[in-house]
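## tool: complex_structure
## caller: assistant
## args:
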Amino acid sequence: MKKMTYAEAIRDGMRVEMQRDANVYIAGEDVGKFGGCFGVTAGLFDEFPGRVLDTPISETAIVGHAVGAAAAGLRPVVEIMFIDFMGVCMDELFNQAAKMRYMFGGKAKVPMVVRTPCGGGMTASAQHSQCIEAWFTHIPGIKTIMPSTPADAKGLMAAAIRDDNPVMYIEHKQLLAMSGEVPEGEYVIPLGKADIKRAGSDVTIVAWSWMVHKALAAAEQLAKEGINAEVVDLRTLVPLDKECILQSVAKTNRLVVVNEAVRTSGFAGEIAAIVVEEGFDLLDAPIVRVTALDIPVPFNAKLEAVYLPNETKIIAAVKSLF
Amino acid sequence: MSDVTKEQLLDFYKTMLTIRKFEDKAAELFAAGRLPGFVHLYSGEEAVATGVCASLTNKDYITSTHRGHGHLIAKGGQVDKMMAELFAKVTGYCKGRGGSMHIADVDLGILGANGIVGAGQPIAVGAAFANQYLKNDAVSVCFFGDAASNRGTFHEALNLASVWKLPVIFVCENNRFGISMNQKDHMNIVDVSQRAISYGIPGVTIDGNDVAAVYETAKDAISRARKGEGPSLIECKTWRHYGHFQGDAGLYKDVQEQEEWLKKDPILKLEEKLKVLNFAKDTELKEIRQQIQGQIDAAVAFAENSPEPSTEDVLADVYAP
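## result:
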């Protein structure tokens, strides 16, 4: 184990895979000498000559070229500087990458990773702060990953690159500098496995990405008040580890889902629907969602704080179930 | 034109006729209500796909369009599996999952027809990048229409291809219409090839109904790309005989213009050439026509007699294992 930041762990995940497989390459805006807008690819340009490519500011061509390169045998890992820019290249992702294999009768494979940072709390306002993971989970053919710790970031990056499907690898800007123990060398976490980040017996809190840490902080507070919360970190939204969620609810009989995205049509609603459909009898209380407000992300810090989910809102949601 | 041999011209003739007969049959089947979905026919544009693909091998990639049957046949697609796909049968290229607008065969280097106008452009660039990265001497060709050169994908793809000096040839089939909209109303230039200037790459406009001219021009561009000299844009002026899709009567076309273009039919032009050069007699051409008609009829029989996909497999192949 080695102590590294979440950003370093993502980089280490890419580095190890690039060492293993000469067909893995990186492309994106300013990912080369500059090292990426958030420094995630720093140093790789020199370490892997000709395999870390700067592109023009052309999100359509970045994702679109990756589709062609992947179908032609490479394993592109492309960076979209902010997840908010995905609107520029959605056709390439949802009509091309995601559907190619099915439409072509199973003959093609499109092993590509789109790395992109999401999330608020940085006064970056409405076009640089969003959590739009539900866009991608709504598209059959794509896998969606949202790691919450440095170790998960590394292990899930390896799995994403080795996967033969298009993968949205969504980083969180708030987590990039977070430090933690990370296994050295090859380290792969299979996709579709949730992780119980805190065991508990009284209520299940399902979260992912930055919100895992909000949920853990809330759980510590709740423990002081005699409520023992279990925190389930989904890690991958598609494929989803339904069993882990249902098993946890079977134990606790109560569910709160925390999602940094806006409320309407968010992935929290999907979790709630699944638990109602498949685990209604397990529930002793209604399911409660803690989400952002249904508004564009405001710039002003006080307004943004009102917009975002936080520990206080999670604690209140949990208490409402007892 | 001088170095196009008799054998090559006769091969071109067979390919172009195969496309024409395939499309005429598709039109007939669609009108009779025997084909599901939409079909967009390539009749009138056969010289472009044929002339370009003549210099490609299975290692080279193409991206096609909604009007893709001609590209597939020219790139080596089998008409029986294509027809079966039009009939949505399990023996089709996509097992009945794609249809006319999504026929593909990665083994033949066909990265798919495409239901989204302009979507093939960045995909072709990516395939060309893979060729450059793997140093395999292969190229990719992107077919698209005049109207697709108005998409943002066109700009981003050509710009990236030019700065990365990728082995890709952009082939614009200028059939003068974006669905119903005349070129003069959808862009303010006459020649799409002028757009190459913005990317610092060669751009030429040629007669897209002259298969020998298409062949010669594409061969040079493909050869440049294979040598690492970067992308090119070739605009082929042509005309689609049918409407945008089957069911569109094409009433927006000027009647006189349509008649003039029908006289410039690429297959008629090639037949005349073959006869003038004394490469083939009427009787031989007739024999070829009959032979190809037989293949098309057999393809229809194959398609009609093929089973539909099993509903039990509906979930298969969404994800690669």
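## assistant note: Residues 285 and 322 of chain A are 8 Å apart (CA to CA). DSSP finds twelve helices and 14 strands in chain A. Handing back to user.
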